[in-house]
Amino acid sequence: MFDSLQDRLQSAFKNLRGKGRLTEADIDATAREIRLALLEADVSVSVVRDFVATVKERSAGVEVSRALNPGQQVVKIVNEELIGILGGETRRIRFAKNGPTVIMLAGLQGAGKTTLAGKLGLWLKEQGKSPMLVAADLQRPNAVTQLQVVGQQAGVTVFAPEPGNGTGDPVQVARRAMEEARRTLHDVVVVDTAGRLGIDAELMRQAADIRAAVDPDEVLFVIDAMIGQDAVQTAQAFADGVDFTGVVLTKLDGDARGGAALSVRQVTGRPIMFASTGEKLTDFDVFHPDRMASRILD
Ligand code: GDP
């Protein structure tokens, strides 16, 4: 991930190396290369436009400094602006003051929601919480079993519908899960929901109904970083249809060009909160914009 972007940015900065002063032509040439590097990485066009304009404007104002030469200052500006488009500060889960904190997962099928439920379960347990995972994805055959398997691996409770007891209705399942969590004193409830291969009205309605039933503290939109620009369009559709409070990027271990990671925050206005980097339950962490920016630039 980001390998090609990293190389392209390095070569954009190369022209500035050792310069005592930056001319307008230097800045223009570098800005052009940064623009191409970002477009090639599949970053959303509007994000690229704003990013390059800001970098150009700030670079033109670079003063001669003793600590950093002009080239280094431009790298620093790009670093700061990358952190900015990735969300600035790390955004952490807002836990409810009273009653269980409800975290609902939404996204397309295959994005990695069920896996994420297990990862979150383990992570929450390590934070001293007592999580319960809820199988409200009743669309995909095996989704319930898959959640039970990851729940077992993580060592956390899974609430799954029993056959014949509202089995087909995810809203009912979610409601009963909430009652059960209160009764059994679980303090975080993670609700896995159904995804489709594409966005459809039925999926949105179901997610919105579950949302209304469980009144979540956080709705996490799970997005596969491998699908680039398309992922961003999907994110926008979910933002309109269900609304969400944060994004989880999955499959950051793949060789995606990084466009989704760099666009999703600006396009949806929602922070990236977690990142998944593999199939194992431990391949998961809170998302840190500054670390991601360093990874792109180092
Ligand atoms: P869901 O349909 O959204 O519930 O998606 P799943 O959780 O079933 O994940 C779909 C596939 O992606 C599974 O084979 C997972 O093992 C895999 N997967 C999930 N997260 C990651 C990740 O961060 N990296 C990689 N390489 N694979 C992942």
Explain what you see:
Part of the signal recognition particle protein translocation system, which is composed of SRP and FtsY. It is found in: Cytoplasm. Residues 271-284 form the SRP54-type proteins GTP-binding domain. The chain is an alpha/beta fold. The model has no long low-confidence stretch (mean pLDDT 90). It contains 11 helices and 8 strands. Bound molecules: guanosine-5'-diphosphate. Guanosine-5'-diphosphate binds at residues 107, 109-115, 195, 250-251, 253-254, 276-279, 283.
Note the topology.
Blueprint: H1 3-14, H2 24-40, H3 45-60, H4 70-85, E1 101-106, H5 113-126, E2 131-136, H6 143-154, E3 157-159, H7 170-183, E4 188-193, H8 201-214, E5 218-224, H9 228-241, E6 246-250, H10 259-268, E7 272-276, E8 284-286, H11 289-297
Parallel strand pairs: 1-4, 1-5, 2-3, 2-4, 5-6, 6-7
Antiparallel strand pairs: 7-8
Helix pairs in contact: 1-2, 2-3, 3-4, 4-11, 5-6, 7-8, 9-10
The protein binds guanosine-5'-diphosphate.
Structural class: alpha/beta
> First CA to last CA: what distance?
13 Å
**Largest pleated sheet:** 8 strands, mixed
- The DSSP helix count reads 11
Q: Count the strands?
A: 8
Percent in helix: 40-55%
Bound compounds, each kind once, are: guanosine-5'-diphosphate
| SSE pattern | HHHHEHEHEHEHEHEHEEH
Strand numbers in spatial order across the main sheet: 3-2-4-1-5-6-7-8
- Poorly predicted sequence stretches spanning 5 or more consecutive residues: none
Can you give the mean pLDDT? 90
- The radius of gyration computed from the alpha-carbon positions, rounded to a whole number of angstroms, is 22 Å
**Overall 3D form:** elongated
Strand content: 5-15%
